[in-house]
Amino acid sequence: MSLFQENKLEIKQGRLLLSEPFLDDNYFKRAVVVLAELNEKGSVGFILNKPADMNVHEVIPDFPKSEHRIYFGGPVQRDQLFYIHTLGEVIPNSIPIAPGLWWLGDFEVVRKMIEQKEIGQQEMRFFIGYSGWEPNQLETEMTKKSWFVAKMNRDLIFDPDSKELWSKAMRSLGKEFSPMANFPLDPGLN
Questions:
Q1: Which of 63, 103, 109 is CA-nearest to residue 90?
Q2: Which helix (H) or strand (E) holds 180?
């Protein structure tokens, strides 16, 4: 039985998608994506391990200076800011993803809380753009074995070590996935 067959977790909101080791795509190579929304209209997710070389205050005018980095969430709407967080109802109009995880919410409240240093990096992550799939597109990609599915893990979602996030997430699937987690990016250089 192959490793692809052993990963039988259902795709659902709040789960993590891990790209297969040899997916050759600029956005999704070794990507870890959290699914923020999954319904009959399609899916929305954010790539967790593609940091930009800038912080939010360098991108958003008049945003309070902070250590909150910007991540590339995906190839859709790359001119818009999105965010996921653990603050729930503290930020009005937040949309639940899974227990303990939300996205969006009142941006002015977020701005004030960051200005007052009430939001840490382990509580919120900002993204430019998102990853989106049309209805049934993600399911089709799953049949092509492009993705593995992992349970939501807040420690992984807010892990500051983005370079090792994909490998850590693969190992979280179980010991049988550990060899895959160690595959080199370019096997020809091995």
A1: 109
A2: helix 178-181
The pLDDT tens digits of the residues spanning 144-179 come to 989 999 999 888 899 988 889 999 999 999 888 877
Cα Rg of the chain, angstroms: 17
- Helix %, strand %, coil % of the chain (to 5): 25, 30, 45
Beta strand 32-39 with 42-47 is: antiparallel
Q: How many CB atoms lie within 10 A of CB 87?
A: 18
Domains belonging to the chain, first-starting first, are 15-172 (3.40.1740.10)
pTM comes to 0.91
Q: Which phi and psi (to 5°) does residue 115 adopt?
A: -60, -35
